[in-house]
Amino acid sequence: MGKLSALAVITLMSLFMFLWYQxxxxxxxxxxxxxxxxxxxxxxxxxxxxDTNIHHLNNSGTIFQxxxxxxxxxxxKTVPDNVNTKExxxxxxxxxxxxxxxxxxxxxxxxxxIRPEEDPNKIQDLFKATHRPSPVRNITVPKMTSIEIxxxxxxxxxxxxxxxxxxxxxxxxxxxxxxxxxxxxxVIESAAKMNPDYKVYLLYSCPISGRLDDSSEYxxxxxxxxxxxxxxxxxxxxxxxxxxxxxDFRAAIKSSEWPNEHSSDVLxxxxxxxxxxxxxxxxxxxxxxxxxxxxxYVGVESQDSIAxxxxxxxxxxxxxxxxxxxxxxxxxxxRGNIWTHNGPGLITRVLxxxxxxxxxxxxxxxxxxxxxxxxDKEFFPIPYQNWELFFNSSASxxxxxIIKDSFGVHVWNKLSxxxxxxxxxxxxxxxxxxxxxxxxxxxxxxxx
Length: 448
Ligand SMILES: *[C@@H]1O[C@H](CO)[C@@H](O)[C@H](O)[C@H]1NC(C)=O
Ligand SMILES: *[C@@H]1O[C@H](CO)[C@@H](O)[C@H](O)[C@H]1NC(C)=O
Ligand SMILES: *[C@@H]1O[C@H](CO)[C@@H](O)[C@H](O)[C@H]1NC(C)=O
Ligand SMILES: *[C@@H]1O[C@H](CO)[C@@H](O)[C@H](O)[C@H]1NC(C)=O
Ligand SMILES: *[C@@H]1O[C@H](CO)[C@@H](O)[C@H](O)[C@H]1NC(C)=O
Ligand SMILES: *[C@@H]1O[C@H](CO)[C@@H](O)[C@H](O)[C@H]1NC(C)=O
Description:
- The protein folds into two domains: 3-129, no CATH class; 144-443, Spore Coat Polysaccharide Biosynthesis Protein SpsA, Chain A (Alpha-Beta Complex).
- The chain contains 15 helices and 14 strands.
- The longest helix is centred in the first third of the chain and has 22 residues, at 3-24.
- It starts with a helix and ends in a 5-residue tail after the last helix.
- The chain is α/β, with parallel strands linked by helices.
- One 2-acetamido-2-deoxy-beta-D-glucopyranose (NAG) binds next to loops.
- The site of one 2-acetamido-2-deoxy-beta-D-glucopyranose has 2 residues, from loops.
- Its main location: Golgi.
- It is a single-pass type II membrane protein.
């Protein structure tokens, strides 16, 4: 592009931006350039654009046309260029942010931050009153002395287990405080946010160096949910007075070819035997309250397997009976040389036997005496073969449609962990996270 036409584009874009911002940021931005790159904003909702309609405005910004706006917790909507921007304000989506190029060094890089705001009526006030960012402020985290809280059997709770340091404390990362991946923090937040009436426990095996307050910002966001509880694992205590008390857990795990997976398998069944509740893997993003599901269920993850990453067993009745069988099965039939043997393999074997069935499709709630076998749509709407859909912006609408009625979505972290989630992009994972873990998302940075 010649210098002249570049200049013309820039001028036009500047004008466009100016008009856009004028509507939104009347009292704050005096010119487009003042607005571009500003970070002092409370942002609400996400603004999407089609990649092809993004225009780069020299090195300092990106400009948007054909905007589609995604409300937090709600639908998305495309906004034509000529729409009256005032209309948006009244509908509570507010502003775009133009981010400096350095933050968007991928070509389709977009922008936006979000700030969860519970009360839509406040949005305009907020917007007028302050342009401070800090999506989450003044996070207070529990004192070290109060973290060995264990669940009470019979309570409504969700349990996550992080076993990284179980056998080898040197596995703990050097960062101070609680150490989690951003995607794990997102999952914990999603469970806590969507289930405020459940306690959400993180059973955590690593030593905690320093104070929880020293954890990274995104980790601290999970403690802004009062129902999140940190539960430090104490192996001896955990196993005592259980059927596995005399079993040599350490030896079993040490000889396993998959010590992380297998220790997590053992702990999930044992923990549910002991406390009941719902166990979730740290890669199941929760999209809705699990209340409707009640207790006592598992999900089918494929034609021939029940999943072990979502398990709900009440602390008595049929749920506890299933848990009891699972723990027995561990005791008598643990194998360290087969990856799925002690997880999905185990729960599948136990249920086939208990429910007098030969194959997974025969399993049914009636055969299983009231213990429910959920279809794959509740937690596994995207089969593992299609995991890449979570990252594909081009197929976003279709993917979001597929998952829209699910309670949660298993994102197959083992396969997907190295694919990038761009904050603000149209990737299904990103859209899901914005909705399910808005606080983590708002501090996640460029990608996570
Ligand atoms: C981008 O353009 C604006 C005016 O349109 C100018 O003020 C600014 O210096 C430019 N930035 C760069 C990095 O070229
Ligand atoms: C915006 O989208 C409409 C409909 O998809 C299209 O006709 C129009 O050309 C687009 N405008 C720009 C500036 O890309
Ligand atoms: C979406 O928003 C509409 C009105 O704006 C509201 O009636 C509806 O309950 C919302 N849905 C969800 C899932 O929040
Ligand atoms: C640019 O992107 C690469 C790869 O995503 C990332 O490693 C790098 O830190 C980014 N640079 C800046 C300045 O954001
Ligand atoms: C939050 O922290 C800021 C600065 O650290 C302090 O001025 C403010 O009073 C705190 N607010 C609350 C509600 O604790
Ligand atoms: C993303 O989805 C589009 C549209 O369905 C498809 O053409 C493309 O191959 C997909 N890309 C990847 C990497 O799967």
